Amino acid sequence: MLYYKNLLVAGLLLTVFGAAAQTEENTKLSTISLYVAPPVTTGEVSEAARSMIEEKITSLITESGIASAWYNNSFVAEPKLMVNGVQTTAGGMRNIMVADCSFSIIIKQQNSAIIFSQYSRNIKGSGFNKEEAVSNAISQIEFADDKAAKFIENAKSKIISYYNQNCELILQKAEKYRSMKEYQAALSILLTVPEEATTCYARAQQKAPAVFKEMQNLECKKYILQAQTAAAAKDFDNALETLSWIDPTGVCQAEAKALIKKIEAETTDDKKKQWQFVFKALDGTIEIGKARAAAMSNLTLYWMRQQSGRTIIVN
Question: Within a domain: residue 19?
Answer without folding.
Answer: no
